[in-house]
Amino acid sequence: MPELPPLLPDETLRRVLRLARLDGLSVLAVAGLFAVLTALAGDVVGAVIGLLVAGAGAIELHGASLLREGEPRGMNWLVGSQLFLLVTVLGYCALRLLHPELGPLRAAVTEEMKTSLELADYTPDEFIRMVYNLTYAIFALVTFFYQGGMAIYYHRRRDPVAQALADEV
């Protein structure tokens, strides 16, 4: 299969702006909603993390704004937003793994589940701990690859975006 030619700088800029707007708004909206819900539930740590994640979305939107105004430094904000989000989520996962809150999960285990777990040679606590750890490990791994990939995506488009912005002047 023949290799496709690289995108024109104008098209690269349009795609970066579209992605940054969509991603930034999504992160801001979802994290903002979760921050409010966790605050209402009395989870201060969850609310703070939600606000930090929402802040990452706002940082990404700010970077897109700078690019629309013709400022190449907007790319720094886009890359930085992804790295900030990555560190925030990995820190949250580490916090939850180091200080697990298993109480609500224990309450969800029914007698039928306990019987099934005994047949599988697990205690309810062992099973809950395993699922809890696996959930946060997978969340951290997915975040690492997704946010890391986004940071690399933005980083690799610095030069074409700068060229597109210079051509607009």
Number of DSSP helices?
7
What portion of residues belong to β-strands? under 5%
What ranges have pLDDT less than 50 throughout 5 or more consecutive residues? none
Query: What summary fits the major beta sheet?
Result: none
Based on DSSP secondary structure assignment, what is the total number of beta strands?
Answer: 0
* Rg over alpha carbons: 21 Å
End-to-end CA span = 37 Å
Count of discrete structural domains: 1
In round numbers, the mean pLDDT is 94
Report helical residue fraction: over 70%
SSE order in H/E notation? HHHHHHH
Instruction: Name the shape in a single word.
Output: elongated
Task: Provide the structure class.
Answer: mainly alpha
Topology:
Layout: H1 9-40, H2 44-68, H3 74-98, H4 103-107, H5 111-119, H6 124-156, H7 158-168
Helix pairs in contact: 1-2, 1-7, 2-3, 3-6
Structure in words:
It is elongated and about 70 Å long. Helices cover about 85% and strands about 0% of the residues. The longest helix has about 35 residues, at about 125-155. By secondary structure, it is an all-alpha fold. The chain has one domain. It contains 7 helices and no strands.
Annotation keywords:
169 residues, mainly alpha, single chain, 7 helices
Brief overview, please?
With 169 residues, this protein is mainly alpha-helical. Helix content is 83%, strand content 0%. The two termini are 37 Å apart.
